[in-house]
Structure formats: C-alpha cells, structure tokens
From TrEMBL:
Residue span of region Disordered: 375-399
Keywords attached to this entry: Acyltransferase, Glutathione biosynthesis, Hydrolase, Transferase, Zymogen
Subunit-structure text: This enzyme consists of two polypeptide chains, which are synthesized in precursor form from a single polypeptide.
Name of this chain's protein: Glutathione hydrolase proenzyme
Documented EC number(s): 2.3.2.2, 3.4.19.13
PROSITE patterns tied to this protein: G_GLU_TRANSPEPTIDASE (PS00462)
Protein family membership: Belongs to the gamma-glutamyltransferase family.
Length: 588
C-alpha cells in the first residue's frame, strides 16, 4: 500500500508505472516532450508527485477518514461505501466542517459508463422561515442573525443524503458505514495540531454556547492539545442511534427531540415536522464539454457546476495552453470570464424547486461565445460596467470535499459543509454535534452580500422549505465514457474557481494531479472588483495585470481540493491538497 499523509513529499510512489517509464526513457533519448493521450501518467521531472495505486484511491482532508475509507475498499466495498464511511468519520475527526448537522452534494459516476447521478442533501429552510427574517424593522440586514444564532441553521441533510447514497449505490448497511465513526467518537482519536489551532482561533465564538464548550474543550476551557486523545461520547450515542434505527434515528426520536428542544430554548425554527419531512433529492448533474473532456458537476441548488461549465465554455475560445499557466494573459482571460459568470450567478441562480434557472442557456456554447466577444484582450472591464447577461430562455424546472475511486472504476465526488468553520458554533445539547449556519447562503436582502461577498436577488431569497444557493462543486470529468478526474473543494465563493483551475491545470497545462492541486490559484467573483491571488504569482505578472486595469490582491490560501486522476492504463493518482496539513490521499 502506498500511503502519503504529506502528499507533496517528492519521493512518495509508485507501483504500476513501468509503461510510463519506458515512454519517458524513449522521449528523453529523442529529446521531445511527452504528452500522453490523456492523463498524466508520466511523473518524472515533475515538482510534485501524486500517490499512485492500482485498485482503489481515497483523498480526504483528514488522514483518519482516508484510512477508514481505504479499508472499506480493501475489504471489497465500493466507492459509495467508502465515501459514506469517510463522510461519517469526518463528522467525528474534523468537526469544523465534517458533519451530521449540515448538508452537501454527492456525485456518483459508475465505472460502467452509465449517466452520472447527483445526490442533493443540501439543508432546507425551516417551514417557519420568511423572506425578511434577517432584517430589522427598518429593513436593514442584521448580519449575525443568519450566522451565529439558532435562526442560522437549516434543516440538516447529511444523514438522509448518505443513507440514500448507500441505498442506491452502496453494498454496506448504514450500521456498517457508521462503525468506524462510532469507534472514533467513543474511543477518541489523537488530535493533530490543526485541530487544536482551529478550536483556539474560534474559542470566543464557540464558548458562548455551554454545550459547545463542554463538547469540544477541556474542563478548564482550553483546547485539546496536539497529541492528546479527544473523545465525543454524546456524538457516539447520536451516531449509534442512526446505526440502530436508520434515518429515523436522526430525524425522529431522541435526536430529533434534542434538536427541537435546542431550537425552542433559543428561538430557533426547526420543528419535528421539518426534520421528519426532510428528503434528499436525486438530480441530474450539469454536463459540459471542454476541449473533448466531459465535465459533470453539481446542478442547482448549487451554482458550482453551472458556472464551472460556463467559464470553461468562455475560455475554450482562447489558446490557454499556448498563453501558459498563470501568465498575465491567461489570468486576464480567466478573471474576465469569472466576472461574467459571477454576475450571472447573482441574478439567476437559486433552488430550481422554487425558481426557474436558465440552466441550458447559461451553460450553452453560443451564450459563452456571446460573452467572450465582450472580453477585451488588453483591458479589464470594470465590474460596475458588467451586469448579468441575457442567457437564452428559461426551461422547465429540473433540477470538506472527498474523492473516491474503486477497483471497478466507480467514482464518488462529495462536498459537504456546515458553512463556516464550526458552522453556527452551536452544539445540540446532549447530542454532541454542531449545527450549520447555512441560512447565510440565502440572500438576506437583494443585493446585500453574504459572508463570502456573494450577492443574490429574488432567485435566492429565503422561502420556507427552500434550499439556499451553494457554490459547492463536486466534479467528475470523463474521457471517452471513462472516469478520468474526480475533484472538488471547500472555500465558499472560491470553490468554483478552485475546482475550475484544477481542471484547467490538467486539461490545458498538462500537469499531473498533484502539481495541478498545488499550483498557485487566482480568483475573481465580479464583486469585489479584484483578482485575488495566492502567493506565487510573480510581481511582473501582477504589474502586467495592473497595467490592463486589474486590481490584484494577495490573500491567504484558497480551497483544499482533494482529487483523483485515472491514468490511461488504469493507474490511480491521488492528489491531496497540502493547503490543509491533515489532507491525505491513499491507495492500494
Ligand atoms: O454552500 C456553500 O457554497 C458554502 N456554504 C460553502 C462554505 C465553505 O466552503 C466554507 N469553507 N471553506
């Protein structure tokens, strides 16, 4: 087995590469560049090396979750079994984002070439939610109300979503998939430095809530230190009730009662009926094609797939490979395309169970061509000169990331969240898990930005039972009907552009998956009108962009993308994101 808790370690590899090696030796002799038909099976000479394996691969943001999921694969489980097992384990080992109190999206693409499917287990607004619930009497948005109060929580979807995924595509029972998570919660696990740091940083916000203080901190209020064992007995009991009673063990009975009591004590809205009626939805993923690769990504209520495909469609008309990775020209075109897409997002995107979204128009090649014409080669268009475009007609309503590939070629791409780190910060008393603050992803008021600076309008206003708009973009790329790339990321509004860049790094710039994951990223979301970059974009590139009228700002790292690529010979390459110290890709 090939294990690499620190995926950027250069020498971590590698069985199953002899074919690639021969091609490389030949190429070196002939002194010509080597470009495999698809997939980067050739690794020598690359700065960063992916983990490689032949049968199964898991990439998650926490080593313990990767390990338990890999064990499922080794014991004959499939990608869905492993993904759900990882999802429950992350709910224990990574409480800042892993969850049972939140929601997300899972994309499943079988190895038999059948149409990929998406499971939408996004949270829903409680039935008592209203359009103006986050505004005061004068109509001003009361910001904290949608972020740090019991009104911030949507009805959680994770447990129902995972159960549906297992039902449709798994071979394990819910009880089997929960077993490692229950063990990790009951027996505890050794906390990494990142765990301690996260809880220290969020201490003030989290310790306002006695149940959070009791669940996640030591008796004296300090955070568990790296190397110490951290146990969650209440969470273990909550997970055990799901194992014993299935979905009803969460949405009804004792856990539901604890959630509702928590709401009633603090003016929250979630009722027994909201919980009992929660249903995940099977949706058709958004589908696009970029330079011969089939892109499948998340459909509404996420905006992710729509805008990844839209941006790729626009960029397809520019010679990106020739212009070069992170050159001023490439970044300019990317930023201009991103602006146009995020402007459309603000206008058109919302839950398709409630509003019409012109999905086909937004993802069509002719619309992209029209938008492309508005992009100038040497001048940035100011954001205030851009308004949402006019995609062709409305059609009838349709509808911490981890990636897994199994030995049958099945792939699962899953992104789920409680929104902020530790969500609302509110732990359900007696149940040991944190509640999301996903309601902040609705437009509290048209034109007023959410925590990620994203604005929205009517299409994303709060309505009872509606799902709030998301940017989560679990994505699977196929080539010739075979799963080729499985990827996705956290990062709020940056999820779309992070995922986009890994696709481009592989398809346009021919990078292996670890290099594609590690490469410095840029982001533009229309408003604020600035290109945000990670460290690693040169000063002269920045100057060239500034000379075209761009404002460029360097910020902290963006996203934590966990990816798997399938080489042409079937070799699996895992690329975990070094931006999270606990990320890991492992295969067998
Ligand atoms: O659904 C969304 O788009 C956001 N709630 C995701 C939040 C997120 O990625 C936070 N992580 N960095």
């Amino acid at each position: 087995m090939d294990r690499a808790p620190h995926p950027q370690t250069p020498e971590t590899r590698l069985p199953g590469r002899s074919g690639a090696l021969h091609v490389l030796v030949l190429a070196l002799c002939l002194s010509v560049p080597v470009t495999p038909a698809f997939g980067q099976a050739i690794l020598e000479g690359e700065r960063f090396h992916p983990v490689s394996a032949q049968q199964g691969m898991v990439a998650t943001s926490h080593t313990l979750a990767t390990e338990v999921a890999l064990k499922v694969l080794e014991e004959g489980g499939n990608a869905t079994d492993a993904a759900v097992t990882a999802g429950f384990a992350l709910a224990v080992t990574q409480p800042r984002s892993g969850n049972i109190g939140g929601g997300g999206f899972m994309l499943i693409s079988k190895g038999d070439g059948s149409a990929p499917e998406a499971i939408d287990y996004r949270e829903k607004a409680p039935s008592g939610a209203t359009e103006t619930m986050y505004q005061d009497e004068a109509g001003n948005v009361v910001r904290n109300r949608s972020r740090f109060t019991h009104l911030a929580a949507g009805v959680p979807g994770t447990v129902a979503g995972f159960a549906l995924a297992l039902d449709r595509h798994g071979t394990l029972s819910l009880e089997q998939a929960l077993e490692p998570a229950i063990k990790l919660a009951r027996d505890g696990f050794i906390v990494p430095q990142r765990f301690t740091e996260g809880l220290e940083q969020a201490r003030e916000r989290l310790q306002r809530w006695p149940a959070t203080l009791k669940t996640f901190y030591r008796d004296d209020g300090s955070a568990w230190e790296a190397g110490e064992r951290f146990r969650q007995p209440e969470l273990a009991d909550t997970l055990q009730r799901i194992a014993d009673k299935g979905v009803k063990g969460f949405y009804e009975g004792e856990t539901a009662q604890l959630i509702v009591e928590e709401m009633q004590r603090h003016g929250g809205l979630i009722t027994h009926q909201d919980l009992a009626e929660y249903q995940p939805v099977v949706r058709t993923p958004v589908h696009g094609n970029y330079r011969g690769y089939d892109i499948y990504s998340m459909s509404p209520p996420s905006s992710g797939g729509t805008h990844i495909v839209q941006i790729l469609n626009i960029l397809e008309g520019f010679p990106i490979a020739e212009l070069g990775h992170n050159s001023a020209d490439t970044i300019h075109y990317m930023a201009e395309a991103m602006k146009l897409a995020y402007a459309d997002r603000s206008q058109y995107l919302g839950d398709t169970d409630y509003v019409n979204v012109p999905l086909q128009g937004l993802t069509s090649k002719p619309y992209a061509e029209e938008l492309r014409k508005s992009i100038k080669a040497d001048e940035a268009r100011p954001a205030d000169e851009i308004s949402p475009g006019q995609p062709p007609g409305y059609e009838s309503p349709e509808t911490t990331h981890f990636s897994v590939v199994d030995k049958w070629g099945n792939a699962v791409s899953n992104t789920y969240t409680i929104n902020f780190s530790y969500g609302s910060g509110i732990t359900v008393q007696g149940a040991g898990f944190l509640l999301n603050n996903e309601m902040d992803d609705f437009s509290a008021k048209p034109g007023v930005p959410n925590a990620y600076g994203l604005t929205g309008g009517e299409a994303n206003k709060v309505e009872p039972g509606k799902r709030m708009l998301s940017s989560m973009s679990p994505t699977i790329v196929r080539k010739d009907d075979r799963n080729f790339l499985v990827t996705g990321s956290p990062g709020g509004s940056r999820i779309i552009t992070t995922t986009l860049q890994v696709l481009m790094n592989v398809i346009d710039h021919d990078m292996n998956i670890q290099t594609a994951v590690n490469a410095p990223r840029i982001h533009h979301q229309w408003l604020p009108d600035e290109i945000r970059t990670e460290q690693g974009i040169s000063r002269d590139t920045v100057r060239l962009l500034e000379s075209r009228g761009h404002k460029v700002v360097t910020h902290s790292a963006m996203g934590a993308i966990q990816s798997i690529m399938v080489g042409e010979d079937g070799t699996l390459y895992g690329g975990a994101d070094p931006r999270r110290s606990t990320s890991s890709a492992m295969g067998y």
